Inverse folding.
């Protein structure tokens, strides 16, 4: 039996989770929300995390009704992510490990998402679509690695949505993506946007620049766009949100379907913050039904970054014998999903 | 007319039929219900046109690709030349590895890679960007004691002179080779080597830039 506490703080969420053999004991989280039109910056985000983390550790133990001595391992996000917020989690994890004399384990953030999704949905060996503010990857498991089949060649899908929300000054509360989703519901007017699939990969930066021009005509002095600008003015924000979602989600569903055909798999699991978008889930479900496949998705408690996923993935690693010497308890901003040896899966 | 289904892929199905009494391949694209009808029509048409155009350009450049006999945008069907007894490069590589001794296998695969490298260079020299270079989209057709190499599936292709697009094309191939033929890591290196000898440094430098971009993609979230 492994009882693990996980600390996640790679982006603007700081979360603590406690899990015992797949049983969720606590999952608490705080989000650093910036004013409309602004993104979160590393320094300020780290400050937010520093102020919140100790209270969260206390409340998670209280919620789980555990004493520190009941824990077997303390897990933290080793990367990928922004360095200053990651450091907050790592320093607290190290301190607690020494204070309570409990082993320490660094966990890959992406692996945390995948394992959490598998635990909650019960999906066995799905094609994983991992979509968030910093990552866009289509992943398939083979031979002890989560292999990346397709990914974005520039910005992540969540980053594209967040930045668009900033341009049209949408609120960041609870998240920019959620507000785009709600606004999109009030339109069904499709505006043609670039659709960029390259092999198994996708690209979003061109779409973002294009829709920026539509949202703020005249801001960029581009003579070529002049004719375009004149007809642009009557697009509403809702139309733009709707069309953006329809276009980029169609790209994601397409590459996921191609990975399914390639790997002869009929299960899809969506994880990551963008994964709780219901329109994306709906499109993916239709695609799966057409192929006789099945979709697995989770809600915001598990989709959006949380401490529980780090605790769970760490517990799996710990159970299969992975240990980490204390002097390796650093963080790294770049840490690819396929770098991790998946020691806990035998298939 | 009974039609024999040859392959059911992610985007459509391919079956054997006839066109004006001659055996041909029919490629039908599905309507995708998950995407907006307007977007779906736009994508389907764009890809059918791309396929027909690229095929024509390849013929002109002396690259083997299926001749398009007829296209029907309303039923989403492309009628094209059928290559009898051809197999995919994916099957070919797996067969060579299984049936030949290690050294002999490597030798034939390297020879194969030289030819692929040359074909891709020829294609790029004519500014044809394939858009989906994988070993499933390259056919091998035995001819006498040797074989011909045929490129297929030009749905994602376009015409471009930009080194960026050519670099991305090579990057797509590298990724496909890494995921499907991870046991033979030398394949892509050799293809790239041949390509470099022909093309000089321009596209290769761009390719390395694209590759570095891809590798960095382990960011926050």
């Amino acid at each position: 039996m492994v009882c693990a506490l996980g600390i996640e703080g790679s982006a603007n969420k700081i979360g603590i989770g406690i899990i015992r053999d797949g049983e969720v004991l606590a999952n608490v989280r705080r989000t650093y929300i910036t004013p409309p039109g602004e993104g979160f910056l590393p320094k300020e985000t780290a400050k937010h995390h520093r102020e919140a983390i100790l209270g969260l550790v206390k409340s998670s133990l209280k919620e789980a009704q555990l004493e520190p001595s009941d824990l077997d391992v303390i897990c933290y996000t080793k990367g990928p992510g922004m360095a200053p917020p990651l450091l907050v989690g790592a320093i607290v994890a190290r301190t607690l490990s020494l204070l309570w004399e409990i082993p320490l384990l660094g966990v890959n953030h992406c692996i945390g998402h995948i394992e959490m999704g598998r635990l909650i949905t019960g999906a066995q060996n799905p094609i994983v679509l991992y979509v968030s503010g910093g990552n866009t990857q289509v992943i398939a498991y083979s031979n002890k690695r989560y292999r990346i089949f397709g990914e974005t060649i520039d910005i992540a899908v969540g980053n594209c949505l967040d930045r668009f929300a900033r341009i049209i000054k949408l609120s960041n509360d609870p998240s920019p993506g959620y507000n785009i989703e709600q606004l999109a519901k009030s339109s069904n007017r499709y505006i043609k946007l670039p659709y960029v699939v390259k092999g198994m990969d996708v690209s979003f930066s061109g779409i973002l620049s294009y829709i920026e021009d539509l949202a703020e005509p005249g801001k960029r002095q581009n003579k070529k766009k002049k004719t375009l600008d004149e007809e642009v003015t009557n697009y509403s924000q809702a139309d733009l949100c709707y069309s953006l979602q329809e276009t980029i989600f169609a790209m994601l569903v397409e590459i996921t379907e191609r990975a399914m055909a390639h790997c002869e798999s009929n299960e899809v699991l969506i994880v990551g913050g963008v994964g709780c978008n219901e329109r994306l889930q709906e499109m993916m479900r239709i695609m799966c039904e057409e192929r006789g496949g099945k979709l697995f998705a989770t809600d915001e408690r598990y989709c959006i970054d949380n401490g529980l996923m780090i605790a769970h993935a760490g517990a799996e690693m710990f159970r299969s014998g992975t240990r980490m010497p204390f002097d390796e308890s650093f963080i790294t901003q770049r840490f690819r999903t396929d770098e991790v040896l998946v020691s806990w899966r035998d298939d | 007319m009974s039609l024999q289904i040859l392959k059911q892929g992610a985007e459509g199905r391919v079956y054997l039929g006839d066109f004006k009494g001659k055996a041909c391949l029919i490629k039908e694209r599905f309507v995708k219900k998950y995407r907006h009808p307007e977007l779906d029509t736009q994508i389907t048409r764009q890809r059918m046109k791309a396929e027909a155009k690229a095929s024509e350009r390849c013929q002109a450049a002396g690259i083997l690709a299926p001749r398009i006999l007829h296209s029907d945008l309303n039923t989403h069907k492309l009628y094209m030349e059928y290559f009898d007894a051809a197999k995919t490069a994916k099957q070919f590589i797996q067969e060579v590895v299984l049936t030949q001794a290690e050294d002999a296998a490597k030798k034939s695969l390297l020879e194969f890679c030289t030819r692929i490298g040359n074909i891709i260079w020829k294609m790029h020299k004519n500014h044809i960007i394939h858009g989906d270079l994988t070993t499933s989209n390259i056919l091998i057709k035995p001819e006498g004691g040797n074989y011909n190499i045929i490129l297929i599936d030009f749905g994602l292709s376009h015409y471009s002179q930009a080194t960026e697009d050519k670099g991305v094309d090579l990057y797509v191939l590298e990724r496909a080779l890494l995921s499907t033929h991870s046991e033979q890591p030398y394949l892509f290196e050799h293809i790239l080597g041949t390509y470099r000898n022909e093309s000089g440094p321009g596209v290769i430098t761009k390719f390395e830039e694209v590759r570095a971009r891809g590798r960095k993609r382990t960011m926050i979230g």
User: Anything to note?
Assistant: Residues 17 and 23 of chain B are 6 Å apart (CA to CA).
